[in-house]
Design brief:
Bound molecules: adenosine-5'-triphosphate, magnesium ion
Number of domains: 1
CATH architecture: 3-Layer(aba) Sandwich
Helix content: 40-55%
Shape: globular
CATH superfamily: P-loop containing nucleotide triphosphate hydrolases
Largest sheet: 8 strands, mixed
């Protein structure tokens, strides 16, 4: 696998450009509560089921909740890394039921969301080192486009921006793309419409966002996929069990599987291109 490093340089227009880890995918949203964490967990699970070695990094430094949705009680977490007590590789924990690894955050630690830049850079660099050991690394980001989000999503080959059809979610998704564009991040952003009433409504939601991006930003973020609204999601979160274990045939589970297949296909294509250009 190519060396995973992300360093910021400026291109000739003075805009920042980044070297990204080819196997890192960030999951973002403008507005909070749209389903990023649930989606990150389910996508990790689907990719692991397909035989990939997957790491899920809880990058929501202020409001970590991967462990909460899965009912885990991590003995070590990001706080140990940030305090300099442990290296990032030492806080990885196996999530046996899902067949993937997790780096847990620490809920309610406001200090983690206000990390000094240097610490954040160090964390990012450690994450990129760890990424070399995996086929795919997913980062569950905090909502919005603050410094932490920008830094972590800059290290990812692509960012999946999750939105629902709620007007506020759409407006905030647009703001994410706009602000991300100014920071040189939006080129690799794809859209995931979550909690869609049905396929037709999901397509409508995407089109609304696309139109705004085309008209005002001259950007065309592609649609990566849509996930239907499904009562099984709440049910599985309440039971702290992944949906692919408890309700694998539910609409939402199948929709995420489809997105996972797309990502796997994309990864294979990238590998082929990388091989043929050697
Ligand atoms: N496809 C879906 N169908 C039905 N409900 C969903 C779906 N996706 C997410 N939800 C609901 O949305 C809630 C929020 O999900 P989640 O915590 O994953 O969002 P989040 O974007 O990570 O939030 P935050 O920004 O606070 O981290 C879940 O508790 C779940 O009930
Ligand atoms: Mg979350």
């Amino acid at each position: 696998m190519p060396e995973a490093t992300a360093e910021q340089t400026n291109n000739k227009n003075g805009k920042p450009t980044f070297r990204r880890a080819p196997n890192v995918i960030a999951i973002a949203s403008g507005k909070g509560g749209v389903g990023k964490t649930w989606f990150s967990i389910t996508l990790s699970h689907a990719l692991a089921k397909a035989g990939k070695k997957v790491l899920l990094f809880d990058g929501d430094l202020g409001l970590a909740n991967v462990d909460v949705q899965l009912g885990l009680m991590p003995k070590r977490d990001l706080n140990d890394v940030i305090r300099g007590r442990l290296g990032l590789d030492k806080v990885i924990q196996e999530y046996e039921d899902g067949g993937f690894d997790i780096i847990a955050g620490r809920s309610g630690q406001a200090s983690l969301s206000a990390l000094p830049s240097q610490r954040l850079t160090l964390l990012r660099d450690q994450l990129l080192d760890v990424a070399n050991e995996y086929d795919i690394v997913l980062i569950d980001l905090g909502a919005g486009v603050d410094r932490t989000v920008r830094m972590l999503s800059a290290s990812a080959a692509r960012t999946l921006l999750v939105t629902t059809d709620e007007p506020t979610s759409l407006t905030d998704a647009y703001a994410f793309i706009k602000l991300g564009s100014a920071a040189g991040l939006s080129k690799n952003v794809g859209v995931v419409v979550n909690q869609a009433t049905n396929e037709k409504e999901g397509a409508k939601t995407y089109k609304t966002l696309l139109k705004a991006c085309e008209n005002f930003l001259r950007l065309k973020p592609p649609l990566v996929g849509m996930v239907r609204h499904d009562p099984k999601v709440k049910d599985t979160i309440r039971h702290q069990t992944p949906i692919l274990t408890r309700s694998p045939n539910s609409d939402a589970a199948q929709d995420v599987q489809e997105i996972a297949n797309l990502i796997l296909h994309d990864l294979e294509n990238r590998k082929k291109t990388a091989k043929s250009s050697v």
